[in-house]
Amino acid sequence: MTIPNRTRALVTLIDEIAADEGYALTRFSQDWILRLEKGGTARHVFGYNFEVNSATAQLLAADKAATADLLAHVGVPVVEHRLFLHPRLAGYVSAQGNWDAMQRYAQERGYPLVVKPNEGTGGDDIYKVGSALELEQAVSELFEGHRAITLSPFLEIEQEYRVVGLDGENLLIYGKERPRVLGDGQATVLELIEQLHLEERLSEEQARRILDNQQGNLKQVLAEGQELVVGWKHNLGEGAKPLMVENGSLADQLGALAKAAREALRIRFASVDIVEVNGTFSVLEINAGVMMEYFVRHYPDLRPQVKAIYAKAVAAMFTD
């Protein structure tokens, strides 16, 4: 779901922070670039990237394969992302090309696999493939718009978490529950999904994608209280729901892993996505752009907490 720049929570929150703290705020590029000035010093927020991370750290975080390789190198548990470059980058691709290597990877890891762009966020252009034909189709489609893609094993993820942190402090931890419907003994799966859309819990685009993926279940009537997970992605932008993780053992484990991941990339302000598989935690990816739009929409009462996080990031930009 596309969020217009002028309505982004980040824009309104930065506007409030500027007023509270005495920063002069100038907006550029339809509010995509925010310039903050105070005491003769200027700093910028570009999209969801704050001028607190180094350019190198941002580039590393944006590169899924690079992140996976670096974290594995320093011993931080991480989900594997095998890099494959577009054939037009012939100088960096072996003479044997990609296909044989992709097939070998599939034989080693087994189907299903996850295929996605090496860069990008929000769950866009991610494919779950169950055969060589589906792999070839996904790769062909992705290479039409991307210069590099990654292959990963498909994991039966029990839960996915996000940890937002600045320097050595973890500021927000929440789980991401995949979209699901709850039966009432009368409505079909189709009607239950449509109800989620009417309640604005799914956008029209999200509902359409879920309907496409649930073709075999749409006429099914769920028993009262029966639950059906209707999406395999944990992205909030794909209809997942955030679930707060309070202080405790789980928060401590997630926080320690996220901190180690940030330190490995030498990135100061970032969100770290962590997956739980068979009771074991691994880093899925690191996002230098800290986006909390959907989180605020789900938890409007926690908007002050999100504002405080962004205020700390702004303060960090001006204390270097």
Task: Explain how this protein is built.
With 320 residues, the protein is α+β, with helices and mostly antiparallel strands. Among the domains are: 5-52 and 303-317, no CATH class; 80-154, 2-Layer Sandwich (Dna Ligase, domain 1); 182-228, no CATH class. It is globular, with a radius of gyration of 21 Å. Helix content is 35%, strand content 25%. The strands form four sheets. A five-stranded antiparallel β-sheet has the order 13-10-9-14-15, sandwiched between helices. The protein is built from ten helices and 15 strands.
Strand segment count: 15
How many helical stretches?
Answer: 10
In CATH, the architecture of the domain at 80-154 is 2-Layer Sandwich
Chain oligomer state:
single chain
Reading off the top of the CATH hierarchy, the class of the domain at 80-154 is best stated as: Alpha Beta
Anisotropy-based shape: globular
What amount of the residues lies in strands? 25-35%
Report the CATH topology name of the domain at 80-154: Dna Ligase, domain 1
Which runs of at least 5 residues are low in confidence (pLDDT < 50)? none
Report the order of strands and helices. Answer: HEEEEHHEHEEHEEEEHHEEHEEHH
Query: Which structural class best describes the helix and strand composition?
Result: alpha+beta
Strand order of the largest sheet: 13-10-9-14-15
Helical percent range?
25-40%
Major sheet description: 5 strands, antiparallel
Radius of gyration of CA atoms, rounded to a whole number: 21 Å
Average pLDDT figure: 89
Give the full name of the CATH homologous superfamily of the domain at 80-154: ATP-grasp fold, A domain
Distance between the termini: 36 Å
